[in-house]
Amino acid sequence: MHDIRKLGLQVFTAPDGMTGEAQIQVRAREIDFVTSFGKNLQALLDVIGITRMIKKENGSALKTKTVKGELKSGDVGEGEEIPMSQYKVEETVFDTIKIEKYRKGVSLEAIAEKGYEAAVQDTDEEFKSDLQNVVTSKFYTQLKAGSLTGHETAWQMAVAMAIGKVVAKFQEMKRTATGVAVWVNTLDVYKYLGAADITLQTAFGFKYMTDFLGADVVFITSEIPQNVVVATPLNNLAAYYVDPGDSEFARAGLAFTTDAETGFIGFHTEGTYGRMISDNFAIMGLRLFCEYLDAIAYISVGSSDTQTLGTLDVTSEAGSGTGLTKLSVKEQLMSPRNSWKYKDAASATNVTCGMDVKNWSKWDGVSEIASTATHHITLVECDQNYKAVRSGDVVVSVGE
Fold this sequence. Notes:
Elements: H1 4-7, H2 21-47, E1 54-55, E2 60-69, E3 87-97, E4 100-107, H3 108-114, H4 116-143, E5 148-152, H5 155-172, E6 180-185, H6 186-193, E7 201-203, E8 206-212, E9 215-221, E10 228-233, E11 237-242, H7 247-251, E12 257-258, E13 265-272, E14 277-290, E15 297-301, E16 310-311, E17 314-318, E18 324-329, E19 339-345, E20 361-363, E21 369-370, E22 376-382, E23 388-395
Parallel strand pairs: 1-11, 5-15, 6-9, 16-23
Antiparallel strand pairs: 2-3, 4-14, 6-10, 7-8, 8-9, 10-15, 11-14, 12-13, 13-14, 17-18, 18-21, 19-20, 19-22, 22-23
C-alpha cells in the first residue's frame, strides 16, 4: 500500500483537461462579447426593417444594380403601334464579402494595475466599438457613392427632395418604398433645430431619430459631410454575413464562440505565456449594403454659384503614334459612378461647378487621345448626371 505522505500533493491535483472556474469565466466572457455585439447589430436591423441577414459564402462578390431605360410616349394616333418601354437591370461588382481577422491583447501589467474586470471590460468595449466601425465605415463609403445627385439652396428642402427622389426612383422601377432612411450631418441638425432639445437613440453606433422631417428614420452622424443629405428606401438596404462558426474552422483547431441566434461574429480568448498577455481574436464577415446604387440620393445644399469646383492635376506626354497624346491624372475618381469627360480645343475651356458636360468626349482613363500639338485638353470629372465636380487643363504633347 502506498504511503500518501511520500506521494506529496500531486495526488490532489485536478485531472488534466478538467473545466475549472478560470475556463468558465473565459467562456462566459466570450459569450458576453458575441451576444452583446449581436444584440447591438440586431437593434439596428430592427430599426431599418431588415428581418434577417443573408448568408454568403466567403469571398462572394457584392453587386449593385442599376435600372436602365425610359418610358416611351403613349401619344400615338388611332391604330398606330404603341411604342414599348424597355427596362433592363445591369449588375456591377462593387466589393466582396469575406471573413476578416482581428486581434487585441491585454497585458499582464494592465491586469495587475487595473484588476482583471476593469482591464478586460475597458479593452473589450473598445475592441467591440472598433469592429462596429469597420462595418459602418464600409457602409458609409457606399452611401457616399449614390448616383441620384442634385443640389438645393436650403437644408430642409434638400431633405424633402432626397426623400422624393428615392421614392420616385423606386416607382420608376415598379417597386414601392416601404419607408425612407435619411443620413445627415450632426451639425446641420442642430443648426436647423437651434436650441430645441432632441432625444437620440443609438443602435450599433448609429444615432437616430424616427419620424423626422418626413423620413421614417434619420441617422445623425459626422460621417456625412456638412450640407449634404443622403437618403435611400428602407427596402433598398440588405445585410449580409459570412458564418464565423464554420465547422471547417473548428476542425482546423480554430474554434470560436458564436451567438447561436445571430452568428454575426466569432470570438476567442486565450493566454499567451511567451508575451504575458491575454490574447483576444475576432473573426467576422459583415456588410450593410444598398442593392440599387441609383436609388441612393446624394443632395448637396447651397447656391450653385457658391459651390467650389475641384481641381485635377493633369499631364500630357507624346503618345505611341503620330498625333496621339497620353494623358495622366494624379487623382482617382471620387465615386465609382463618376466618369471622365474631356474637350480638345485651341485654348482652355472654362468649366464651372455643376456644368453639364454630357456632350463632351468620354475618356476611360487609359487610352491615348488624338489631338494636335499645343492644343489644350480640358479634363472633367463628372457625376452620374454629367455635372462637373472637378476639372484640369493641360497643353498637349503629341507623338510625331
